[in-house]
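Same chain as my last thread, 224 residues:
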Amino acid sequence: MMLKIYPDRRWPAFLRVLADTVVSVWTVLWAYLGFLIYQTVMGLEVIADGIRNTGSTFNQWIAAFRQAVPGGIPILTKFLQDTADTLRHYSGDQLVAAGQNIHDAILRVAIVLALLVAVPPILLVLVPYGGWRWRDMRETGAALAFVRIASITGRADAARAVLAYRAISSLSFRQLMSASADPVGDLVEHRYERLASEMLKRAGLDPTRLAPPELPELPPHRDG
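reply #2:
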């Protein structure tokens, strides 16, 4: 399968380059907007980090309190150690866990919102346009392969006939009459050049890609 990204003719090629650029800019803009939303939502993680840091600070205070508990006094030492464990269970660890859960929730919300904002408009344009461009490149590539094979094998005249009959069957009457003032006469008298050229132009190719028609040999000139 042969692909041809852009047509030979300048104006159709320019239009496709322009369309590719517009679609690319559209995709980049929406992707950037989604990234901005992601960054904005992730800015809320300072709240979660503050809660988590507060819990870590409490745990550090409790650890320092446990280290400061005097030893050698069985009842008092056990009471103070139990008090430190109770404080850690009901304050520091819960705050650290809550901060981590909030951080994870913010991350999920940021990703979901960014995707919901960026993906639908990107797909809305990119999917139909990408499908059309793929078909267009395949069609232009197939036309180029058709012309190359006909030129290599020396069947350019037969290829023109095929293109002329295809023009008759596929072009609208307006397009047909703009290509030739007498399309029926062209077919009857085997004048395929104008109709074939029109089909090649509409396929995105320069008509000169097909070898020019062979001119009939003139009889030798005789003097006298």
